[in-house]
Amino acid sequence: MRRPAPASPPVALTVAGSDSGGGAGIQADLKTMEAHGVFGTSVVTAVTAQNTRGVASSHVLPTSEIEAQFDAVVDDFELGAVKTGMLATADVVETVTERLADVDAPVVVDPVMVATSGDRLLSSDAESAYEELVAAATLVTPNVDEAEVLTGVDVTDDESAREAGETLIELGAKAALVKGGHLDGDTVVDTLVVSDRLREKYTDDAPTGLGTHRFEHPRVDTEATHGSGCALSSAVAATLARGNSLVESVTAGTDFLQRAVRYGLDVGKGPGAVHHLVGLRDRADQQVTVEEVAAVVERFVDRDVSLLVPEVGMNVVGATPYAESPDETAAVEGRITRTLSGVHPNRGVRLGASSHVARFLLAAREVDPTLRFAVNCRFADDVEAALSALDGAVAEFDRAAEPDDFAAVEGNTMQWGARRAFESAGETPVAVVDRGAHGKEPIVKLLAADPETVAERTLTLLEAVETEQ
């Protein structure tokens, strides 16, 4: 018989409706909490028949059943945070507000009024009942439409978002996050307004008066946002339950949602849903990616790719399927260099070991997210002639055409170059030529969606170069 080794994660509670489609509501909340290392408990307020295309019907539970669930949870668990979602009716809102009065934990109120599909999830007479619940909130997280209903402020820009947040604080909330996803523009701006009534343990700087924080993220061109509000509020609640400050929790929550939307789940016949486990999956895939890169490097050593190693050294870079930064790419630390007996990696493969090639790969993934691997190779006349052996388009970019103000920022050249190369090819290229500049060695970068393909393309190029010689 083995000795048990139990874990003791923080506990959070979600009070919300059930989504039979699994993308929003209680289901989304529990997935998100678990992905953030928090044990999720639940109070189901309503049962909905819905999927990625819309809500077919809903049934609100009797308040006595809601109270019974709530009592069962608080009698047994020490709650680190609570979040509320779909409450449906005035009676439910009032019941939940009463129960929360006895909870000593931060409360995140997501005032769910309308589903992403456009279906209404809150009765009109329940809107006024929200005032007391807002007053009990550590944080309230309305989108612009919900903020207008709650405050009367027509949110159209940063200034009106701040005004709506301040009005919610006047209603009693300790902080308000007005989400800007419904506004037009290439950038999503979420506005957090914090009151000095917020207790010090929930904030970074215990501000006097009102403090305003902006959270900006590039907009993702997708309609697969089902469950986005639930996922964000649950992520914030879970991070609060882990003991983080409010600003830290909102920062983590908005960053998480950006990735969860970009790498959304293509499920159902509708637009799809956000990826609640995206961070967990990214971490799980990191070691696998390290091993895949190491296997490619081993093939290069065995085959001796000296003829393709540039003066700056060669690197093999692999991105996780959800990589957003160089720290989430695996590469050879110190690169691969030529020796008297062939090629040799200077050190092992680890995450974050590449800057130049990793930034290029990440920029290429902005155009084609299926790309996950890249290798930088020497570029000269013999290599240029050998590129015709590759099965696919070869693109290039000219550093001389890069705008001066863009080139002045470290890392921008790789982003600009990748986009120019893809535009010139009109498709995803298998190789991108950088002819270099003063102090910049000419390089060709090979791209692929998997490690086997990037290795084969490199070895095909090597064989063609050997033939040229």
UniProtKB/TrEMBL annotation:
GO biological process, one term: thiamine biosynthetic process
Keyword field contains Nucleotide-binding: yes
All residue ranges annotated as the Thiamine-phosphate synthase ThiN domain in the record: 293-458
Record GO terms (molecular function): ATP binding; hydroxymethylpyrimidine kinase activity; phosphomethylpyrimidine kinase activity
GO cellular component, one term: cytosol
Keyword Transferase: yes
InterPro entries per record: Aldolase_II/adducin_N_sf (IPR036409), HMP/HMP-P_kinase_dom (IPR004399), PM/HMP-P_kinase-1 (IPR013749), Ribokinase-like (IPR029056), ThiN (IPR019293)
Protein's UniProt name: Hydroxymethylpyrimidine/phosphomethylpyrimidine kinase
Keywords, in A-Z order: ATP-binding, Kinase, Nucleotide-binding, Transferase
